[in-house]
Design brief:
Radius of gyration: 22 Å
Largest sheet: 8 strands, parallel
Distance between the termini: 26 Å
Helix content: 25-40%
Shape: globular
Oligomer: single chain
Strand order of the largest sheet: 8-9-10-11-12-13-14-15
Mean pLDDT: 93
Number of strands: 19
Number of helices: 16
Structural class: alpha/beta
Length: about 400
């Protein structure tokens, strides 16, 4: 691998933005406040921000590449390659593809989850982002329990979430617009969908013990767990006792406070911050952040959102940029146990972004280094390839 020298720039070192230079060697940051030395590749970061790469522990926007329209499918390998390019071009250097494993057939089926997991494993060496598998288990998908337990024991799952959307499904059946969307996603007829929901709901009594068994399997495999859409402190407590120490999208402040009081990681969606509220009408993420009730922002369904959200929080005066950036980089790294990234420091993984912040609320990504490789560059005048060539020489060329 080629050593990379990042010249100048306001680098986020600890909690401060500091004018300094960085040297990348191999996959890691070799030196802070460095000189170029013998590095053959240099980037001019003057007037730019130099930030740790974004860690996205929950992103499912890849589903749009798989099924851009209802009933229109594209091959998984093509969709994942496109999603990798989208993630990197939005500064996401570590991505957990949040893959739903549901009782539904079609896009969110167990078959599709299996295919995604296998494709990620196959394509991982080709991806620019460090790509991982976040399995979102719909708890009513009882038939998948044995296979999921096997995946956990084999070390094929990087994050494991418990989801229960069954109440919402039952409620939405009577809403024509929502019903049509659900039915189209499954590829079933309307009558077949009704019969499937009836059959799945009839096994509700089996769900709690299944959840307990899978939580035990995840604990044994040392896979970190999340609970999704916790609706009460009691629900958060129950999942915490099972070992799920990440609260993903708690739906009210009371539940978020219960999570915070026990030191649980609390995840909200970055699109919620960018848009100024939840698309579901639930908790406003900016309010939770201002109250200290959020430790992680995830891309959720929109890859550009994490980058935009950090700058939105700073512009709105919710918190300084350095603190806001923790929510999209160091915070999710801590929550997922990735202690080698999220900070610009010697010995840390070289996931580095160069960002032009000259236009308020519209940060422009200039370059992305992922695992020590320059994988994205939008301004060639920032690239200095010759040892002694000043920037003006490259521009003139």
């Amino acid at each position: 691998m080629t050593d990379i020298f990042i010249e100048g720039g306001r680098a986020l070192i600890g909690a401060e933005l500091v004018e300094t230079s960085l040297l990348v060697s191999g996959t890691d940051i070799a030196e802070v406040d460095a000189s170029r030395g013998r590095a053959r590749l240099a980037l001019d970061a003057r007037d730019l921000l130099v930030l740790p790469g974004i860690v996205d522990l929950h992103g499912d926007a890849f589903e749009r590449q798989m099924m851009p329209r209802a009933g229109v499918d594209f091959p998984i390998d093509v969709a994942l390659a496109d999603s990798d390019r989208q993630a990197i071009s939005n500064g996401i250097t570590t991505v957990f593809h949040a893959t739903t494993c549901s009782w539904e057939p079609g896009l969110r089926s167990a078959d599709n989850a299996r295919g995604l997991m296998e494709a990620i494993e196959r394509q991982r060496p080709q991806f620019a982002a460090d790509t991982r598998f976040h399995l979102r288990h719909e708890t009513f998908n009882l038939d998948a329990e044995a296979e999921i337990a096997q995946w956990l024991s084999e070390g094929r799952v990087d994050l494991f979430a418990f989801n229960d959307h069954m109440d919402g499904v039952v409620a939405d059946i009577s809403n024509p617009r929502k019903r049509n969307r659900m039915v189209e996603r499954t590829g079933l007829s309307s009558e077949e969908f009704d019969r499937l929901v009836e059959r799945v709901v009839s096994r509700a009594d089996e769900v709690p013990v299944s959840v307990s068994r899978l939580a035990a399997a995840a604990r044994t495999a040392k896979v970190r767990m999340l609970s999704h859409d916790d609706s009460s402190p009691a629900m958060r407590r129950d999942f915490r006792e099972l070992g799920a120490l990440i609260a993903e999208f708690p739906i009210n402040e009371e539940t978020a406070r219960a999570a915070a009081s026990h030191g649980d990681a609390i995840v909200y969606g970055a699109p919620n911050v960018v848009r100024g509220g939840s698309h579901t009408g639930w908790t406003r993420a900016s309010d939770m952040i201002a109250k200290g009730l959020c430790s992680v922002l995830a891309s959720d369904y929109y890859y550009p959102a994490q980058l935009l959200a950090a700058f939105r929080l700073a512009a709105d005066g919710v918190m300084p940029l350095a603190q806001a950036w923790d929510l999209v980089s160091a915070g999710p790294a801590r929550a997922t146990g990735l202690t080698d990234r999220g900070l610009l420091a010697e010995g840390r993984r070289a996931d580095i972004l160069l960002v032009d912040d000259s236009v308020e609320l519209r940060p422009r990504l200039i370059a992305v280094i992922s695992g020590g490789r320059l994988v994205h560059l939008t301004d060639a005048t920032r690239l200095l390839t010759a040892m002694a060539a000043p920037r003006e020489t490259v521009v003139a060329a």
